[in-house]
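Course exercise 7: structure representation. Students receive a sequence record and must write out the corresponding structure in token form. The form below is the worked example handed out in class, using Glycerol-3-phosphate acyltransferase (207 residues). Read each field label carefully; the graders check that inputs and outputs are placed in the correct fields and that the protein name is recorded exactly as given.

STUDENT ID: A-19
EXERCISE PROTEIN: Glycerol-3-phosphate acyltransferase
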Amino acid sequence: MYFLIVSLVGYLFGCLHGSQLVGKLKKIDIKNSGVKNAGASNTTILLGWKYGVFVAIIDIFKATLAILLVLYILNENGITGDLQTLLIYITLLFVIIGHNYPITMKFSGGKGTASLVGALLAIDWKVAVIGIGILLLFTIATDYLVIGVLFMYVSFLITTAVFFGVEPAIVVLFLSVLSFMKHLENYKRIMKKQETRLSSMYKKKIS
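STUDENT ANSWER:
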């Protein structure tokens, strides 16, 4: 029953898309424009960094709030220890599934990066510091956000296995594969030198 509850909470929170709100405000279909992704990075490419930050804040903290709500429910019902940890990771899984495949967008959403960052903040400060640090380091070093994301997932997998054990790590492994598949087009564009660089995103003027 608890697995069903946390899955539902995660999915519903995941379906809340910042890009949908901005798209309606600016009268643009963000999902089907630019690099065709309903996330903060594509919003930045299309509309500038201020709108990108707004979308990122929504997509980040919906994951944080979902996990905090689940933690409250579990604590109120005496669910602690390894079971609580696994249920938190299941919540994260369904937040990202909801973000990537939202019923509100005909099951075609974003790629889940911002929501993962929000989840890290709620799961454990050590995991968050390492994961976000790796994200920033590799993104800045390569000038490609997608490379930073790849290494963030690698670090998340390792830190989860070290701090929380095998079962939560299996959840992260599944998320890592999902993220890799979602970013395949980005990797192909990098090989062709067609991928948008981070530095060029933040030079975009607000229309």
